[in-house]
Amino acid sequence: MNKIDNIAKRAADAASMETLPLTGLKVIDITHARAGPTAVRHLADWGADVIRVDQPLSAPGSAALEDVTGRQRGSDYQNLHRNKRSLRLNLKDAAGRSVLMDLVKDADVVIENMRPAVKHRLGIAYEDLNAVNPRLIYGSISGFGQTGPYSNRPGLDQIAQGMTGLMSVTGHADGPPLRAGIAVGDLSAGNMLALAVMMALYERQQTGRGRWVHTSLIESLLFMLDFQAARWLVDREVPKSVGNEHPTAIPTGVFEAADGHITLAAPNSRMWPKLCEAIARPEWILRAEWSTRDGRATHREEIHAGIAEVIRTRAMQYWIDKLNAAGVTCGPIYTMDQVFDDEQIQLLGMSRPVTHPVMGELQLLASPLNFDGSDRALRCATPDGGADTDRILRDLGYGEEKIRALKAAKVC
Question: Does residue 304 have an active-site annotation?
Answer without folding.
Answer: no
